[in-house]
Amino acid sequence: MASPLRELVADAIDRLPEPLTPPDPGVVVDLVDRLPRADAALLECHLDGSRRMDLGLRALVGQDDTTAPVAGVAGDTLWHEYDVTTAGVSGPAVFVGPGAPGRVRTVPALTARLDVLARLTGESIAGSVRHRVRECVTRLPPGGTVTYVGHFGGRDPKCLRLTVLGLAPWWIDRYLAAIRWPGDARPLLERAHHVMCRSRTPLALMQHLDLTDSVLPGLGLELRPVREAGWDGVVTELIGDVGETLRDWTGRDEHGVRRVGYLKWILAPDGTERVKAYLFVGLRKRRS
Length: 288
What we know:
Order of helices and strands: HHEEEEHHEEHHEEHHEEE
Number of domains: 1
Strand content: 25-35%
Number of strands: 11
Strand order of the largest sheet: 1-2-3-4-5-6-7-8-10-11
Structural class: alpha+beta
Low-confidence stretches: none
Helix content: 25-40%
Distance between the termini: 24 Å
Oligomer: single chain
Mean pLDDT: 90
Shape: globular
Protein backbone atom coordinates (compact mmCIF):
# COMPACT_ATOMS: atom_id res chain seq x y z
CA MET A 1 0.00 0.00 0.00
CA ALA A 2 1.40 3.40 -1.03
CA SER A 3 2.16 5.87 1.73
CA PRO A 4 0.00 9.00 1.89
CA LEU A 5 3.01 11.20 1.09
CA ARG A 6 3.94 9.09 -1.94
CA GLU A 7 0.45 9.55 -3.35
CA LEU A 8 0.59 13.27 -2.61
CA VAL A 9 3.96 13.67 -4.34
CA ALA A 10 2.80 11.69 -7.38
CA ASP A 11 -0.29 13.88 -7.68
CA ALA A 12 1.74 17.07 -7.21
CA ILE A 13 4.15 16.12 -10.01
CA ASP A 14 1.25 15.19 -12.26
CA ARG A 15 -0.23 18.66 -11.77
CA LEU A 16 2.99 20.52 -12.69
CA PRO A 17 3.31 22.50 -15.93
CA GLU A 18 5.29 20.63 -18.57
CA PRO A 19 8.52 22.67 -18.27
CA LEU A 20 8.87 21.45 -14.67
CA THR A 21 7.80 17.82 -15.12
CA PRO A 22 10.80 15.45 -14.75
CA PRO A 23 11.57 13.08 -17.65
CA ASP A 24 10.81 10.04 -15.47
CA PRO A 25 8.44 11.04 -12.64
CA GLY A 26 8.41 7.49 -11.27
CA VAL A 27 12.07 7.74 -10.26
CA VAL A 28 11.32 10.76 -8.07
CA VAL A 29 8.13 9.26 -6.63
CA ASP A 30 9.92 6.00 -5.69
CA LEU A 31 12.40 7.96 -3.58
CA VAL A 32 9.63 8.79 -1.09
CA ASP A 33 9.78 5.18 0.11
CA ARG A 34 13.41 5.58 1.20
CA LEU A 35 12.52 7.59 4.30
CA PRO A 36 9.69 5.97 6.23
CA ARG A 37 7.33 8.28 8.11
CA ALA A 38 8.29 11.30 6.00
CA ASP A 39 5.57 13.91 6.26
CA ALA A 40 6.70 16.42 3.63
CA ALA A 41 8.75 16.70 0.46
CA LEU A 42 10.50 19.38 -1.57
CA LEU A 43 10.36 19.04 -5.35
CA GLU A 44 13.61 20.76 -6.35
CA CYS A 45 13.11 22.03 -9.89
CA HIS A 46 16.12 23.22 -11.93
CA LEU A 47 14.97 26.18 -14.03
CA ASP A 48 17.52 25.72 -16.81
CA GLY A 49 15.35 23.87 -19.31
CA SER A 50 16.69 20.45 -18.30
CA ARG A 51 13.47 19.43 -16.46
CA ARG A 52 15.74 17.97 -13.77
CA MET A 53 14.04 17.46 -10.41
CA ASP A 54 15.82 16.53 -7.16
CA LEU A 55 13.91 15.54 -4.03
CA GLY A 56 14.07 16.43 -0.35
CA LEU A 57 12.20 14.47 2.33
CA ARG A 58 11.36 15.66 5.85
CA ALA A 59 11.06 13.13 8.66
CA LEU A 60 9.13 13.20 11.88
CA VAL A 61 11.95 12.86 14.38
CA GLY A 62 12.22 9.79 16.57
CA GLN A 63 9.27 7.83 15.21
CA ASP A 64 11.23 4.90 13.80
CA ASP A 65 14.75 3.45 13.65
CA THR A 66 15.65 5.75 10.78
CA THR A 67 15.09 8.94 12.76
CA ALA A 68 15.54 7.78 16.35
CA PRO A 69 19.22 8.91 16.57
CA VAL A 70 18.09 12.51 16.13
CA ALA A 71 16.00 12.38 19.29
CA GLY A 72 19.04 13.52 21.28
CA VAL A 73 18.52 17.02 19.85
CA ALA A 74 15.07 17.94 21.10
CA GLY A 75 12.76 19.56 18.59
CA ASP A 76 14.99 19.10 15.54
CA THR A 77 13.87 17.88 12.16
CA LEU A 78 15.66 15.70 9.64
CA TRP A 79 15.87 16.14 5.87
CA HIS A 80 17.20 13.72 3.28
CA GLU A 81 18.07 15.20 -0.11
CA TYR A 82 18.53 13.12 -3.26
CA ASP A 83 20.16 14.33 -6.49
CA VAL A 84 18.48 12.88 -9.59
CA THR A 85 20.43 13.11 -12.87
CA THR A 86 20.58 11.20 -16.15
CA ALA A 87 23.36 9.14 -14.53
CA GLY A 88 21.07 8.00 -11.73
CA VAL A 89 20.24 8.86 -8.11
CA SER A 90 22.84 9.90 -5.54
CA GLY A 91 22.47 10.63 -1.85
CA PRO A 92 21.02 11.17 0.48
CA ALA A 93 22.60 14.29 1.81
CA VAL A 94 21.49 14.49 5.44
CA PHE A 95 20.42 17.70 7.20
CA VAL A 96 19.54 18.18 10.84
CA GLY A 97 18.48 21.30 12.69
CA PRO A 98 15.68 23.26 14.29
CA GLY A 99 14.52 24.79 11.00
CA ALA A 100 13.58 28.40 10.33
CA PRO A 101 11.96 29.09 13.73
CA GLY A 102 14.94 27.66 15.62
CA ARG A 103 18.15 29.19 16.89
CA VAL A 104 21.63 27.69 16.72
CA ARG A 105 24.12 30.39 17.69
CA THR A 106 26.34 28.69 20.25
CA VAL A 107 29.21 26.24 19.81
CA PRO A 108 27.67 23.59 22.13
CA ALA A 109 24.39 23.67 20.18
CA LEU A 110 26.27 23.30 16.91
CA THR A 111 28.48 20.50 18.28
CA ALA A 112 25.35 18.54 19.23
CA ARG A 113 24.11 18.74 15.62
CA LEU A 114 27.50 17.67 14.24
CA ASP A 115 27.51 14.65 16.57
CA VAL A 116 24.01 13.71 15.39
CA LEU A 117 25.10 14.00 11.74
CA ALA A 118 28.07 11.73 12.41
CA ARG A 119 25.75 9.10 13.94
CA LEU A 120 23.21 9.33 11.14
CA THR A 121 25.73 9.13 8.29
CA GLY A 122 28.23 6.78 9.94
CA GLU A 123 31.05 9.16 8.94
CA SER A 124 33.25 11.01 11.41
CA ILE A 125 33.73 14.75 11.04
CA ALA A 126 37.38 15.79 11.16
CA GLY A 127 38.54 18.21 13.82
CA SER A 128 39.70 20.72 11.17
CA VAL A 129 36.21 20.73 9.63
CA ARG A 130 34.57 21.16 13.02
CA HIS A 131 36.90 24.09 13.68
CA ARG A 132 35.84 25.77 10.42
CA VAL A 133 32.16 25.28 11.23
CA ARG A 134 32.62 26.70 14.74
CA GLU A 135 34.38 29.74 13.28
CA CYS A 136 31.45 30.37 10.91
CA VAL A 137 29.04 30.29 13.84
CA THR A 138 31.07 32.48 16.18
CA ARG A 139 31.41 35.13 13.46
CA LEU A 140 27.65 35.40 12.85
CA PRO A 141 26.45 39.03 13.00
CA PRO A 142 23.53 40.00 15.25
CA GLY A 143 20.32 38.33 14.12
CA GLY A 144 22.05 35.53 12.22
CA THR A 145 21.27 31.93 13.12
CA VAL A 146 22.06 28.48 11.72
CA THR A 147 18.88 26.63 10.79
CA TYR A 148 20.40 23.40 9.47
CA VAL A 149 23.76 21.70 9.16
CA GLY A 150 24.03 19.11 6.41
CA HIS A 151 26.43 16.43 5.20
CA PHE A 152 27.09 15.78 1.49
CA GLY A 153 28.91 12.46 1.54
CA GLY A 154 28.39 11.72 -2.15
CA ARG A 155 29.91 14.88 -3.58
CA ASP A 156 33.50 15.64 -4.50
CA PRO A 157 34.77 16.92 -2.21
CA LYS A 158 32.69 15.65 0.69
CA CYS A 159 31.53 18.67 2.61
CA LEU A 160 29.26 20.07 5.28
CA ARG A 161 26.65 22.71 4.54
CA LEU A 162 25.49 25.46 6.86
CA THR A 163 22.23 27.27 6.19
CA VAL A 164 22.20 30.73 7.77
CA LEU A 165 19.05 32.80 8.23
CA GLY A 166 18.36 36.29 9.51
CA LEU A 167 20.92 38.45 7.68
CA ALA A 168 20.13 41.34 5.35
CA PRO A 169 22.12 41.44 2.05
CA TRP A 170 24.64 44.00 3.36
CA TRP A 171 25.30 41.88 6.45
CA ILE A 172 25.77 38.78 4.28
CA ASP A 173 28.49 40.56 2.30
CA ARG A 174 30.33 41.50 5.53
CA TYR A 175 29.86 38.02 6.96
CA LEU A 176 31.27 36.34 3.85
CA ALA A 177 34.36 38.54 4.12
CA ALA A 178 34.73 37.72 7.82
CA ILE A 179 34.74 33.95 7.19
CA ARG A 180 37.05 34.34 4.15
CA TRP A 181 34.62 33.08 1.53
CA PRO A 182 36.58 32.99 -1.77
CA GLY A 183 34.23 34.80 -4.15
CA ASP A 184 32.33 37.95 -5.01
CA ALA A 185 28.62 37.79 -4.21
CA ARG A 186 27.94 41.52 -4.38
CA PRO A 187 26.12 41.55 -7.75
CA LEU A 188 23.85 38.72 -6.58
CA LEU A 189 23.27 40.36 -3.19
CA GLU A 190 22.44 43.67 -4.85
CA ARG A 191 19.85 41.91 -6.98
CA ALA A 192 18.36 40.23 -3.91
CA HIS A 193 18.26 43.58 -2.10
CA HIS A 194 16.43 45.14 -5.07
CA VAL A 195 13.83 42.36 -5.08
CA MET A 196 13.28 42.64 -1.32
CA CYS A 197 12.86 46.42 -1.49
CA ARG A 198 10.32 46.19 -4.33
CA SER A 199 8.31 43.35 -2.81
CA ARG A 200 4.96 44.12 -1.24
CA THR A 201 5.32 41.09 1.05
CA PRO A 202 8.16 40.61 3.59
CA LEU A 203 10.92 38.32 2.34
CA ALA A 204 13.80 36.56 4.09
CA LEU A 205 17.18 35.45 2.80
CA MET A 206 18.94 32.24 3.74
CA GLN A 207 22.50 31.56 2.61
CA HIS A 208 23.98 28.12 1.98
CA LEU A 209 27.70 27.68 2.71
CA ASP A 210 29.75 24.57 1.90
CA LEU A 211 32.68 23.77 4.17
CA THR A 212 35.58 21.37 4.45
CA ASP A 213 38.59 22.59 6.44
CA SER A 214 38.06 25.79 4.45
CA VAL A 215 35.08 27.71 3.11
CA LEU A 216 34.45 26.42 -0.40
CA PRO A 217 33.67 28.62 -3.42
CA GLY A 218 30.07 28.56 -4.51
CA LEU A 219 27.11 30.02 -2.67
CA GLY A 220 23.39 29.42 -2.38
CA LEU A 221 21.05 32.32 -1.71
CA GLU A 222 17.51 31.33 -0.87
CA LEU A 223 14.59 33.76 -1.04
CA ARG A 224 11.50 32.81 0.94
CA PRO A 225 8.34 34.57 2.10
CA VAL A 226 7.81 35.63 5.70
CA ARG A 227 4.09 35.22 4.99
CA GLU A 228 2.30 33.79 1.97
CA ALA A 229 0.22 36.81 0.93
CA GLY A 230 1.79 38.37 -2.18
CA TRP A 231 4.49 35.69 -2.58
CA ASP A 232 3.06 34.43 -5.88
CA GLY A 233 3.66 37.88 -7.38
CA VAL A 234 7.34 37.74 -6.40
CA VAL A 235 7.67 34.26 -7.90
CA THR A 236 6.16 35.43 -11.19
CA GLU A 237 8.44 38.48 -11.28
CA LEU A 238 11.57 36.34 -10.80
CA ILE A 239 10.87 33.30 -12.97
CA GLY A 240 8.32 34.63 -15.45
CA ASP A 241 5.77 32.40 -17.17
CA VAL A 242 6.73 29.34 -15.11
CA GLY A 243 5.93 31.29 -11.96
CA GLU A 244 2.60 32.33 -13.41
CA THR A 245 1.62 28.71 -14.11
CA LEU A 246 2.54 27.74 -10.54
CA ARG A 247 -0.31 29.93 -9.27
CA ASP A 248 -2.70 27.22 -10.51
CA TRP A 249 -0.49 24.41 -9.14
CA THR A 250 -0.55 25.62 -5.54
CA GLY A 251 -3.44 24.56 -3.34
CA ARG A 252 -4.63 22.51 -0.40
CA ASP A 253 -7.29 19.95 0.35
CA GLU A 254 -8.12 17.50 3.13
CA HIS A 255 -5.03 15.42 2.31
CA GLY A 256 -2.24 17.94 1.92
CA VAL A 257 -0.81 21.24 0.75
CA ARG A 258 1.17 22.39 -2.29
CA ARG A 259 3.03 25.69 -2.34
CA VAL A 260 6.16 27.34 -3.70
CA GLY A 261 8.46 27.06 -0.69
CA TYR A 262 11.31 29.22 -1.88
CA LEU A 263 13.52 30.20 -4.81
CA LYS A 264 17.26 29.71 -4.73
CA TRP A 265 20.00 31.47 -6.64
CA ILE A 266 23.10 29.28 -6.94
CA LEU A 267 26.44 30.94 -7.61
CA ALA A 268 28.78 28.23 -8.89
CA PRO A 269 32.54 28.23 -8.17
CA ASP A 270 33.19 29.37 -11.78
CA GLY A 271 30.92 32.40 -11.30
CA THR A 272 27.97 31.13 -13.33
CA GLU A 273 24.47 31.41 -11.89
CA ARG A 274 21.43 29.17 -11.96
CA VAL A 275 18.04 29.15 -10.27
CA LYS A 276 16.00 26.43 -8.58
CA ALA A 277 12.41 26.47 -7.40
CA TYR A 278 11.64 24.42 -4.28
CA LEU A 279 8.04 23.26 -4.29
CA PHE A 280 6.71 22.12 -0.91
CA VAL A 281 4.33 19.16 -0.73
CA GLY A 282 3.16 18.21 2.76
CA LEU A 283 0.56 16.15 4.55
CA ARG A 284 -2.13 18.04 6.43
CA LYS A 285 -1.67 17.82 10.18
CA ARG A 286 -4.44 15.89 11.86
CA ARG A 287 -6.13 17.52 14.80
CA SER A 288 -6.27 15.34 17.88
